[in-house]
Amino acid sequence: MDLFDRRFLFVVGKGGVGKTTVATGLALAASRRGKKVLLAMVNCKERASQLLGSEPIGAEIVNVAENLDAVNMTPDAALEEYGMMILKVRAVYNAVFRNKLVRAFLKGTPGLEAWSMLGKAFYHSNPPRGEPDYDLVIVDAPATGHALDMLRVPFVIDSVAPPGLLRRDASRAVEMFRDPERAGAVLVTLPEYMPANETTELADALTGELGISVLQLVINRVLSVLFAENERGVVESLPTKLDQDSSIRGLAIAGRRRVLRESVQARAIRRVCGHIDAPVSELPHFEGLEGDREAVDALSEALMQVV
Fold first, then answer.
1. Counting runs of H as helices and runs of E as strands, what totals does the chain give?
2. What is the pLDDT of residues 214-273, one digit of tens each?
3. How far apart (Å, rounded) are the C-alpha atoms in residues 7 and 123?
4. Contact at 8 Å (CB) between 271 and 197?
5. How far apart are CA 4 and CA 34, in angstroms?
6. CA angle, corner 89, sides to 88 and 92, nearest 5?
7. Residue 287: which residues within 8 A CB-CB, separation 6 or more?
8. CATH number for the domain that contains residue 189
9. Strand duo 214-222 + 8-13: pairing
10. CA–CA gap between residue 303 and residue 187 (Å, rounded)
């Protein structure tokens, strides 16, 4: 089944691994395949507009490319829009959500702000009535720990909330998130020890605790391999065999550093790929993506190349 045949994708990973870059690349690739796509960022330091060459993306949905809309969700704006989606009538919304006691309750309810953003994104992909606004919603989720906390919220609401609109939507979201033909996670990591280890733990939490499928693993900033495995030992030991004043000593030291990085990379990739049973995309390091639409387009296509 094609990744873009789903209706809802979470892009998740450790902070700094390139989640926004990957989420934006996926959104572009899906939109070019004729899907109407919403890229929903979760209250983040917005940089997708720099990648897309668009105006800054705020709390209101804006069009950023053909078939592609984007939004940087904030708790207050998402709560208001989600409330309007549910209640439909502005007067009813004002009577409920503008009430000081109600707002104080909402602010003090653990997880409700997170659910307002996740629920808003979910609503665009699967409203209770009528056709969805988008063929595919891609959520650029927070870093690992915060992402898991956010994803746990509908499961908690579904388990403990009394019957009503809130529980109804949470139950529908849980059902969809656990259906690998409609939703799942795209995990982003780097070929380094700490990100790889955190990614394996994230995959275990998603699949084991929440029942959310990992649909694709993206390994970002992969170095091209300069030295075959049987050459690395020779290159690594070369500096110790040269005189201090050798004209190639600097080159030999640079070669050893490269070998060490390639060895770490190879072990990290084996670790994460051996643990996570999902298609894998390896992305090279793209320089100067901001403002270079051709490079962003190349990256989006590379995401679809599974190794």
1. 12, 8
2. 999 999 999 998 888 888 888 888 888 888 888 888 888 888 998 899 899 999 999 999
3. 11
4. yes
5. 10
6. 115
7. 295
8. 3.40.50.300
9. unpaired
10. 12
Both tokens of residue 184? 């799942």
Distance CA(159)–CA(209), nearest Å, equals: 14
Pair of tokens at residue 157: 């609401």
Domain membership of residue 215 (yes or no) is yes
Q: Please return the burial class of 69, using the count of CB atoms within 10 Å of its CB with bins 0-12, 13-18 and 19+.
A: buried
Nearest Cα to Cα of residue 121 among 54, 207, 27: 27
Q: How far is it, in rounded angstroms, from Cα 151 to Cα 156? A: 9
Name the residue range of residue 55's domain: 3-226+278-302
Structure confidence by residue, pLDDT tens digits, 93-112: 454 455 555 455 445 444 67
The candidate with the shortest Cα–Cα distance to 57, out of 38, 76, 30, is 38
Tokens in use for 28? 């572009």
Q: Which residue has the tokens 């609109």?
A: 165
In a domain, 272, yes or no: no
**Taking Cα atoms as reference points, which of 144, 132, 145, 137 lies closest to residue 117?**
137
The number of folded domains in the chain is 1
Among 45, 54, 56, 33, which residue's Cα sits nearest to residue 300?
33
241 inside domain: no
Here the tokens at position 96 are 């409920």
In the sheet that holds 37-42, the strands lie side by side as 62-65, 68-73, 37-42, 136-143, 8-13, 183-189, 214-222, 280-284
Residue 270 in domain: no
